[in-house]
Amino acid sequence: MSFLNEGKLVVVTGPSGVGKGTLLKILSDRYPGRLLFSISATTRRPRAGEIDGREYFFWSRQQFEQERDAGAFLEWAEYAGNLYGTPRQAIEEWIALGQTVILEIELEGARQVAKSFPEAKKIFIAPPSIDILAQRLRQRNQDDDVSIMKRLKHAEIEIAAAEEFDLIVINDDLEKALKELAKEIFF
Asked: Is residue 81 part of a domain?
């Protein structure tokens, strides 16, 4: 019997404001060295303090399109005039080394990964209700009312797709949600 961890890819998605990042950060802190977070490639320019290979791989549009056309991404999308994608090679190398790789991504990207990497574990983080999600979005103080309404409308579409995932975690009770995630990811 081998004591080496078997590597895997875990895709985590859910509506904006549902707490995906918070849950994953806490898990990462509680299980140091047990999670690797996927790094996406993008054609957008680095923001202040961002380092190539840490937050993103910053590529030219030409390089990104060549990689995309060669099938080098698990998923990719265009957003606000920039291309974003998850390079397949790094993920496969990390998994081969026994790493648990986390890909926190939006719904369409998760659907692409389900096709391009069907063995990935797919987890959907859901709010207890749309009303509570609206309250959380307002408490973040990041968006105006129009943006919040757009996010909520999009959240309804995402929540309707939750059954496509292997596990749905309702982020109502933080500790309960963390236990469900940890059980699915580590055990």
From this structure: yes
The radius of gyration computed from the CA coordinates of the chain, to the nearest angstrom, equals: 17
State the total domains in the chain. Answer: 1
Q: Which domain holds residue 56?
A: 8-186
The predicted-structure confidence for 43-91, as pLDDT tens digits, reads as follows 999 999 999 999 999 999 999 999 999 999 999 999 889 999 999 999 9
Helices (H), 31-98: 61-69, 88-96
Residues 136-145: tens digit of each pLDDT? 999 988 888 9
Torsion of CA 119, 125, 126, 128, to 10 degrees: 140
Note the residue count of the chain: 187
Residues 6+ apart with CB under 8 A from 4: 98
Total H helices, total E strands in the chain: 7, 9
pTM value is 0.89
